[in-house]
Amino acid sequence: MSDNTLNSSFDVIGRAAEENGLPLFGGFLRSVEFGACAALGYDFYDMGIKTGRLAVRIKNGESPARIPIQSMDEVKLYVNTTAAARQGVAFSKGLLDRAKRSFNAASGPSTAPGLDLD
Predict the structure, then answer these.
(1) How many structural domains compose the chain?
(2) Alpha-carbon distances, residue 52 vs 46, 48, 56, 63 (angstroms)
(3) Residue 96, pLDDT above cutoff 70
(4) Rounded CA gap, 35 and 12, in Å?
(5) I need a surface site. Which of 27, 36, 88, 91 has the fewest CB within 10 A?
(6) Residue 65 lies inside a defined structural domain of this protein
(7) Strands 38-41 and 25-26
(8) What is the spatial distance between Cα 38 and Cα 80, in angstroms, rounded to a whole number?
(9) 3-state secondary structure at position 20
(10) Is position 63 within any domain?
(11) Which domain holds residue 99?
(12) Coil, strand, or helix at residue 105?
C-alpha cells in the first residue's frame, strides 16, 4: 500500500516493524530506506522521464487525444538486508540477484556485487 499519509511517516512504521520483528514490505521503492525489508514498484524518476517525453510531444503540437494511454514498463525490486534481518526475513540468493538496489539501514544505498543500479 502506498499513499502520502503512509509515505510521510514510513520511518515510524519501519521502526515499529523492527521492534516487533514483523516483516514490512513497501509499495514505493524508497520505503526500503525507511525500514521496509523490500519494495516492489515503479521508479518515480523513470516515470518523470516518461511524463516529460509526453509533455514535449504535446508542446510540439501533438494532440493529447491522439496519444495512447501510457504505463510504466518495468517494476523494480529494492531490498534492505539489514531491515530484513531485524524483521526475521531471509531472502533467497535468486531474489537478491534480481534486486535493482540493495540497501543497508545503517548506511543507505550500497552497491553490492552483481546488482544493477541503473
Answers:
(1) 1
(2) 10, 6, 6, 15
(3) yes
(4) 8
(5) 88
(6) no
(7) parallel
(8) 6
(9) coil
(10) no
(11) 4-43+75-110
(12) coil
